[in-house]
Amino acid sequence: MRLALVNTNRMRPPIAPIGLDYVAEVLSAAGHVVALLDLCWEEDPGAAIARFFGGADLGLVGVTLRNTDDCGYTSRQSFLPELAGTVHTIRRCTGALVVLGGVGFSTMPEEALALSGADAGVWGEGEFVLAELANRIERGQEWRDLPSLVWRDSAGWRRNAPGAWPLEGLPPMSRSWVDNPRYFRQGGQAGFETKRGCPGECVYCADLVAKGNWTRVRPPAVVAEELLRLLEQGIDHLHTCDGEFNLPAWHALEVCRELVRRGLGEKLRWYAYCAPAPFSPELARAMRAAGCVGINFGVDNGDEGMLRRLGRGFAPEDILNATRWSREAGLAVMLDLLLGAPGESRDSLVRTVELMRQAKPDRVGVSVGVRVYPGTKLARRVASAERPEGLSGGGDASAPLFFLEPAVAPFAFQLLDGLIGDDPRFLFFDPARPERNYNYNANQRLVEAIQAGYRGAYWDILRRLDSPA
């Protein structure tokens, strides 16, 4: 079958659509003819769609949504209206079945389908489902019973049970379907996966909804081969796309050892998302030897009670240990905070900033206000409350819903600004201090830095801009 894949993400700095790269590889390996339209590079998306689909005989169109919105409490830019416009334009150009997918789509599939008018969607992993969907359409067979499919009949939306495919079944990834070198030149990094799924129980996390809480690991040798393919394209700065690279820790160690065995630790510079526990000096040293130069620990809070309320499986002491061990191994460290969740107080905010100063990371990301995604524990909690105070936004799918604890809402930004002062280590989503903004969407400072030759994780580029030595 001839089919098309469309990338709708137009954020700047640009991030390569790793999911489409993987999906295209699997579809091609299954014998289908794949064409890819990357709207990231198009000044006029509508005209590009018309040119791309003009006269094309297609049986299926896959459209990816990486993000539903920019996750910023103070900015609240939704990407769903743009998705809807893109799907409507595609509809005018082809009669092929239009199927949505991607991590953003998987966080709220029914809402995205209703707004866009697409025929169906795949929530979770798309490679195997989309390949089988193309097979069945080509053979004229029923396809609505496929795992992970979201579709609609006269009774309403149907969401089929998710499939769980071993990642060993993926073909070797050439990383050639997307223009990764161009993304590297203009985006400063490339992504790679070592596993999927996360066993965590964070109350707000959309990854659990989109990717599941069962962990599927990729063979370390396969990961190393993929990184070699990227290195051959001149791409030497990368970032993991795993939820948490060190969950499970044994697999992270095996990946690091394989990269060292291949000599890649001397050629690559990569960054990872990690949990503060389980973490160890051994893992920190192994990551550095394998070429890792920085870790972003999503710690959320520094108050023990708040960490329990958020469903985090670590304590303040783990944050201090992970930061110390990482820095001793020669790794730059970013601690990311997500403040204002249910139960937040003046005391917990003060304790959090104090712990960050005690930890002495290279940078601290401070975000106030929690995005409430459908299907999360936080969404169920606020929906069950008699008076769901603290909510703002929502109303329809294109208006992101946020929660900010009412007990701190009147003074949170002012208090944090006073506690942080002029400490350059803190990056702060504060509408009154735009120079501290670290929202990566439409961040012109980052765009210009990458044009000037900076490469790496965006928080680390901002760090080096502020500390050029």
Quick description:
By secondary structure, this protein is α/β, with parallel strands linked by helices.
Walkthrough of the structure:
The protein is of the alpha/beta class and 469 residues long. The chain folds into two domains: 2-159, Cobalamin-binding domain (Rossmann fold, 3-Layer(aba) Sandwich); 179-466, Alpha-Beta Horseshoe (pyruvate-formate lyase- activating enzyme). It is built from 18 helices and 19 strands. The protein has helices spanning 18-29, 45-53, 80-93, 103-107, 109-116, 127-139, 180-187, 207-211, 220-232, 249-261, 281-289, 304-309, 316-328, 346-359, 377-384, 412-420, 444-451, 458-466; strands spanning 2-7, 33-38, 60-64, 97-101, 120-122, 149-153, 156-159, 190-192, 195-196, 216-217, 237-240, 269-274, 292-300, 332-339, 363-368, 370-371, 391-393, 401-403, 426-428. The strands form four sheets. Strands 2-1-3-4-5-6-7 form a seven-stranded mixed beta sheet, with helices on both faces. Strands 8-11-12-13-14-15-19 form a seven-stranded parallel beta sheet, with helices on both faces. The protein has a three-stranded antiparallel beta sheet with strand order 16-18-17, with no helix packed on it. α1 (18-29) crosses α6. The longest helix is centred in the N-terminal third of the chain and has 14 residues, at 80-93. 49% of the residues are buried.
Shape: globular
List unreliable stretches of 5+ residues: none
- Taking Cα atoms only, what radius of gyration do you get, to the nearest Å? 22 Å
Number of β-strand runs: 19
Helical region count? 18
Within CATH, the superfamily of the largest domain carries the name tm_1862 like domain
- For the termini, the CA-CA separation is 54 Å
Mean pLDDT equals 93
Classification by helices and strands: alpha/beta
Helix content: 25-40%
CATH architectural type of the largest domain: Alpha-Beta Horseshoe
Largest sheet: 7 strands, mixed
CATH names the topology of the largest domain as pyruvate-formate lyase- activating enzyme
Tally of separate domains:
2
CATH class of the largest domain: Alpha Beta
Spatial arrangement of strands, main beta sheet: 2-1-3-4-5-6-7
SS strand fraction: 15-25%
